[in-house]
Amino acid sequence: MILLIPGPTPIPNRVQTAMAGPLVYHRGPDFPALLTGIVEDVKRVFPTGHDVYLLSTSGTGAMEAAVVNTLSPGDSVIVARAGNFGLRWDKICEAYGIDVVIVEAEWGKAVDPDCVRAALVANPSARAVLATHSETSTGVLHDIEAIGKIVSGTDALLIVDGVSSVCAHPLPTDDWGVDVAVTASQKGLMVPPGFAIIAFGPKAGKASERSTLPKHYLDLSEYRQSLEEGRGPFTLPVTLLVGARAALDAIGEEGIDSIWERHARQASAARAATNALGLDLFAERPSNVLTSIGLPETIDGLEVMTRLREQHGVVVGGGLAHLRGRILRVSNLGYVVDEDLLAGIEAIETVLSDMGGDIEVGAGVTSARDVLKK
Amino acid sequence: MILLIPGPTPIPNRVQTAMAGPLVYHRGPDFPALLTGIVEDVKRVFPTGHDVYLLSTSGTGAMEAAVVNTLSPGDSVIVARAGNFGLRWDKICEAYGIDVVIVEAEWGKAVDPDCVRAALVANPSARAVLATHSETSTGVLHDIEAIGKIVSGTDALLIVDGVSSVCAHPLPTDDWGVDVAVTASQKGLMVPPGFAIIAFGPKAGKASERSTLPKHYLDLSEYRQSLEEGRGPFTLPVTLLVGARAALDAIGEEGIDSIWERHARQASAARAATNALGLDLFAERPSNVLTSIGLPETIDGLEVMTRLREQHGVVVGGGLAHLRGRILRVSNLGYVVDEDLLAGIEAIETVLSDMGGDIEVGAGVTSARDVLKK
Questions:
Q1: Could you tell me if residue A6 is inside a domain?
Q2: What average pLDDT score do residues B21-35 get?
Q3: Cβ–Cβ of A193/B20 closer than 8 Å?
Q4: Do B194 and A23 touch (CB under 8 A)?
């Protein structure tokens, strides 16, 4: 099975092997070095100089932690969003009685940083701007650097969902003025799902002192205190941390710069293939996490996905919400080798042609291979 | 290394092997059968006829879910506690603005159900009683059946921390009037840490309709809706679920009744050994999860634990909070074979004797073996 999905991503063998070893005891003497080593190495992949905490939650749990540790009931925030995952910020904020001002772009487009600036001017009491780095439902990359320049000139925090972007794109929190960034194990980090990571900077730390939203399991002050002793306040998923240790070793050997470059090269190849096949590149400002391919009206994306899986052993993402059946989301996130990406493109060509699409079989693979060779 | 600790417990080989297999995609076609099969089989281990949800959190996350899904700010509750883990209920409730009435027993003793009755009479508006089945910091088992008889005659909910007890003791929620019960993967279930389980009954379901505490990640209505499609609302730790599938198969083969009996037999053997060595059985109403051994004043428990680990490869729990260094907590929870328990007892005898304890080396093992033979 070839997994070309934006998480859980394929897992390198050495990560699997590490996790199959004997269980580490989370109160035992070896645990603090494991945890603090992971925390230090994870900082390099954002990169971030902020405090970093590991939570036993999915990425959404860390997004909620970002909100409940910095805000108070009745606060207002600006959510900059352009897709399904951006919607999660509204939902979390609304669940906690936060007033949400929405700055929205059409799905497939990116939110214009100038619109964020205008929203901040119109809502000077906004406590935070919440944004999505790589919007995985559409394949769009937001310009967090530009948004950060705008937000850092105000009292508002910039809180960024980097769940799918970290390891595929740099997210230098300190340079870009990102106060809180979250990611999760099963994405660029190449570990199975089961823990999330939150980078929490000094401006966020100040905000946390006045935050009154209720929290216990997600209370980062507990994590800060426990981390000083090399532990989590609650039981952490040790097996997955052992996997993370192996994954971070692999990342260290390849080098995070090379990994960013690999994601850029592979995504560029997928985009070249899409163009060569005369298909629609759905994302206006495409992410290197995944390539969204708009399908011809006559072709049912769900049927394409079934054929890809059953006839070719290739798993790609489909469209979410109103895009269901309308796009394919072909991801090269994590541990994807060029050959798997090419096999995926070849399978897509074949299936679309079989289903009556006006497709020149081979054109996509040829274009992609040319890009990958560079 | 012989792990005699109350979680993470030793993992059977078949569980390790299952987790080393290829990754299952949480949006793929095989996932719903995996998740719903686990949910159905987990119901048998409580046993419970209630709805059961899996959360990507530690046990504490599920405890918090029990609170935020049933209560509202300003509600009052009764916390029945007698140890470190019972304290967690206060902390969670207080973080959410719930008024807590505490019914406390000294560490090492169990809360008297009649005291819970008296607290309910004195606080007729209490919305819930929160209790701990097996209090792992002291080794005490609470009489949840008796507490349930009292609470079920009132409008209050009975919410039980079964994190360490499930699989070691029956916790028949429906028969005992338990409205919410929580447990976690790394305990009797014999899976590494990384997910929690919540059983949520009809009286709790009614309460959830009027609960106004804020929640998103822990909102069980989202879990209920997603489970109908065989999914979680957020990414679940699939690798650990594959492990859980194997563990539940093993539990099914041994039979949950036999597993309860095994825990009873092994804990009884550990207690017999403690008595034979002239040591103090710390728990007045002992759990079958672990045996708390009170040490002579002259012996430092931390040094005992270090020697056990370094000289004998045996890991046991130590005393928490004011019991630090004063007790050993020897657990037979999960996948512990008789030989490992005996080796642990033998190591304890040897270390205590080496440290100048008045110990008849061999007496503990002999008594334990006699009990195990029965």
A1: no
A2: 85
A3: no
A4: no
